[in-house]
Amino acid sequence: MLDRKIAQKIADEVMSSLGHNINVMNENGIIIGSGSPQRLETYHETAMKAINQCETCEVTEAEALKLQGVKPGINMPIVDKEGKVIGVVGVTGNPAEVRNIGKLVKMAAELIIEQQESMNRFYSHRNDKELFITTLINDRLTISEKEIFDWGQRMGYDMEKPRVALIVTIKQQEKNNKTALEDLLNEMKTSSSHLKQDISTVMSGDSILVFKTIKKTEPWEIEKIVRAYAIDILAKRPELKKIRDCKCYVGGYYTGIKGYRNSYSEAYGIAKHAIGSTGEFIYFAHSHYFWKLFNHLDDEVFSNVLLPYIQKIEKCFGKGTEEAMLTMKRLYENGFNYEKVAVELYVHKNTVIFRRKKLEECLGFSIKGNGEDNLLFSLILGYYRMLKNEQELE
Description:
This protein has 394 residues and is of the alpha+beta class.
């Protein structure tokens, strides 16, 4: 079906190149695109003849006087790939003068329509895939697992293949990095490591989700496959030099349709709550279970233990609380490498040391080491981050 938007696009683009008035009529002979706005929505009698006979119809000035809504010119049927006439494109003027131009106009019109149909198919597939992925990771299934399985099969995914969830996040100076993520995903798809069976999308403009196809499901095999994939598509990409921070979070393998949700939940949990200590850019669920401990704490622990500590820190640091907590988060992620954290935060190394010591004095215990105090502060930091995220969403 030929819509008005495309019809007017044909008229505008072709007219700007040829200088002749162009009319585009739908399958009912109604002008839906024209260089003469006053002719829009009027009936074109010769266009209907071109549609019914599926042939080019020329109209002289004398003939035009006898017809309804027609001016001298040439009218050519627009035919789709299936051979169906979907409309007519007309060029106003003396038929002898516009005959050759008409052939170019017809070719241009059909090319524009074909390009638009390709774009429509692309966006339709992308929207269908995004809805499919949303359904996969949803807590509550609105359709049966078999329907989801069949849906994936229709989209070309072998739903029998094992997959694990991989969340990729990047941090830039700009607050909205959706374009950067889309560019990165497109770059990832050009890699030989990114398979056709890998299901991927940009999630709400803040992360990329890939359900990575794997051959073996043991934890160490998942590490081997996904680490090689991540290094190939991320660490070796030159455009990532512009990215200040890039992290990958990988969920475990679970069977069945519900397994997609379980794997995604693990990857999401690590992304939101895990505090790395190795400085790596990739984290696996089976190696970082702190977030599960955090999620299983009851409300009284949050309100009676962790919140008082946070309030004490806020009283001690005031407006500098966020800087202090961010410094500690970066220290954890970089294995307490003061020089590296100082570079990341654009501060002097002594500033990093000062913030840590002041925080220890405020809390009354050491934060460095592998003792129970370290676990307590990890919980405090995790709860602080959760509260900050909730405030930003309000």
